[in-house]
Design brief:
Blueprint: E1 2-6, H1 16-20, E2 27-28, E3 31-32, H2 33-42, E4 48-53, H3 57-66, E5 72-77, H4 83-91, E6 100-104, E7 107-108, H5 114-123, E8 127-134, E9 141-145, E10 151-156, E11 164-173, H6 175-179, H7 189-199, E12 204-208, E13 214-215, H8 219-232
Parallel strand pairs: 1-4, 1-6, 4-5, 8-12
Antiparallel strand pairs: 2-3, 6-11, 7-13, 8-11, 9-10, 9-11
Length: 233
């Protein structure tokens, strides 16, 4: 299993904390978020983890240099921010031998990734999006699907959003499709790439998670995640 963790963003939603620490290195219950991700991936058969960096990239490089675990940990620095999809396009040469996982660097995911990969391979998909059911979606990216689990559309922060399937920020992607995207151009998966793939009749499917991912991208969300982890110990 090969995984890319998106960690280049400025972390502006975190306020002053985001000016001091890249979001992937924010402390969550006593350890950096990236350390939690790596520990989980070590137990799931991952072999290579690629982390992109831009904002406070020196801290990400220092973390990687100190990492002593079994994974091959590679940091790819972006001279300029390229967006979620542009950042993956910038690093896709490291994933040229089969589907790979993309994980947003400001979420906590507790579920195993192998079923997500199995869904992708079984559907012969270009992209597989992890989603979870939510009663309120007004501040989320919503994914519309048909009865077979194929994606039919996207709605970003729908006004008055009621129940729906929320984009979890966790994907499996076909490297050839990513490599076909323009290089060194800012691109976003939700706004640019996934809608274009749908319009071009690519197979884009969902994999439903049993529980929501935990977003740590705001001070309130981070505090909630810290409390939840502490209470579970």
């Amino acid at each position: 299993m090969r995984v890319m963790i998106l960690a280049a963003g400025r972390g502006t939603r975190l306020g002053p904390l985001g000016l001091q620490v890249p979001k992937a290195l924010v402390d969550v219950a006593g350890e950096p978020l990236l350390a939690r991700h790596l520990r989980s991936l070590e137990g799931q058969g991952a072999t290579r983890v690629v982390v992109n960096a831009h904002h406070l990239a020196d801290q990400v490089h220092a973390f990687a240099a100190a990492y002593a675990g079994p994974l091959e940990l590679v940091v790819v620095e972006e001279p300029a921010l390229l967006g979620t999809a542009g950042g993956v396009r910038h690093a896709v040469h490291l994933f040229d031998d089969g589907p790979f996982v993309v994980l947003y660097g400001d979420v906590l995911v507790d579920e195993p990734l192998r079923p997500l990969l199995d869904t992708h391979v079984g559907a012969h998909a270009t992209a597989t999006l992890a989603v979870y059911a939510a009663e309120r979606t007004e501040d989320k990216g919503v994914v519309d699907v048909d009865e077979d689990g194929r994606v039919t559309g996207f709605r970003e922060k729908p006004p008055g959003g009621g129940p729906g399937l929320v984009n979890a920020g966790l994907y499996v992607l076909d490297p050839a499709a990513v490599a076909a995207l323009p290089a060194d151009v800012p691109l976003d998966f939700g706004f640019d790439v996934f809608p274009a793939w749908l319009a071009a009749s690519h197979v884009v499917v969902v994999h439903r998670l049993a529980a929501p991912v935990v977003d740590i991208g705001t001070p309130d969300a981070l505090a909630g995640a810290r409390r939840a982890i502490a209470s579970a110990r």
